[in-house]
Amino acid sequence: MRRRPLEPIEVACPTCGLIAELFRPVGTRRPKLCRCPAPERVAKATRPRVCISCPTILNRYNAGVECGACARARAAGRPRS
Q1: Residue 79 CB partners (closer than 8 Å, separation 6+)
Q2: Residue 58 and residue 60: Cα distance in Å, rounded?
Q3: Does this model's pTM top 0.70?
């Protein structure tokens, strides 16, 4: 049976600041070296993001708070309704 190759990893705890450089087999879980609780994860939004100027639902490609049509109309100085 072949052993998995080792890869260097750096483990850092955001709570206590512990930093360790280790070697572990490729594809295994990262080890936990301190007793600090795991950082809380923020829950995903349950409702879709909506444009602030119109009822368009924004997707992941809309980085801002407006849809493309409203942003272009605002840049050109025209009101969009």
Answers
A1: 73
A2: 7
A3: no
3-state SS, residue 80: coil
> What tokens appear for 9 in the block?
């990893």
Strands (E), 1-81: 6-12, 19-25
What phi, psi does 69 have (nearest 5°)? Answer: -65, -40
State the Cα–Cα distance between residues 7 and 26, nearest whole angstrom. Answer: 6
Predicted confidence at residue 15, as pLDDT, reads: 85
Instruction: Find out whether 20 and 10 touch, Cβ atoms under 8 Å.
Output: yes
pLDDT, one tens digit per residue, over 52-61 is 989 999 998 8
Neighbours of 8 (CB within 10 A): 8
